[in-house]
Amino acid sequence: MIRVLLVDDQPLLRSGFRALLDIEDDIEVVAEAGDGEEGLALAREHLPDIALMDIRMPVVDGIEATRRIAADPDLAGVHVVVLTNYGLDEYVLDALRAGAAGFLVKDIVPEDFVHAVRVAARGDALLAPAITRKLIDRYVTQPPEPPPGPGLDVLTDREREAVALVARGLSNDRIADRMVISPLTAKTHVNRAMTKLGARDRAQLVVLAYESGLVTPRRP
Prior knowledge:
Elements: E1 2-7, H1 11-22, E2 27-33, H2 36-46, E3 50-54, H3 62-71, E4 79-84, H4 90-98, E5 102-105, H5 110-121, H6 129-141, H7 157-167, H8 172-179, H9 183-197, H10 202-211
Parallel strand pairs: 1-2, 1-3, 3-4, 4-5
Helix pairs in contact: 2-3, 3-4, 4-10, 6-10, 7-9, 7-10, 8-9, 9-10
């Protein structure tokens, strides 16, 4: 059973999300919160698999709540998916840096919304190639400063190659094809890179790849 926490300051939206999820046999909404502070408290109480987190909320916003969840070892199993009305804006990038596993635009169709919850529950990043393309374009126009933390020299050559392919939007199967290795080996390279770089998930790995300069942004 996938346990979901809804964190949004608009009760009507929370009701809509709950209605979509409650009809699924394998998904349970365990709690709702109207701001990030309440959401953090409920995350600690219920230990959900997924926290669907609005970005712009009173008291504590979604970015700070995401950062606190990512920093709490007791909440290591909680995957935060941020909700936005605006697509890939600076708030979303900040949320990904803070530890979000991905993001959804609130006008997503119901079928894709439910599928996305299941994807996030498996631990996969909600960063489709089209979204990764937008991330790349943002770094073309606004090159970031290198982030603090472990440098890329902690990675092996094969791990660096795998990270670069993740940043290009490739799945583990496609990474395996490109590197001529098994999907299991590809997954191992990616997971070891995440551990060494302190990335919570693939979404953060994508951000780190561009911020570190491992992948150079370019226009299509």
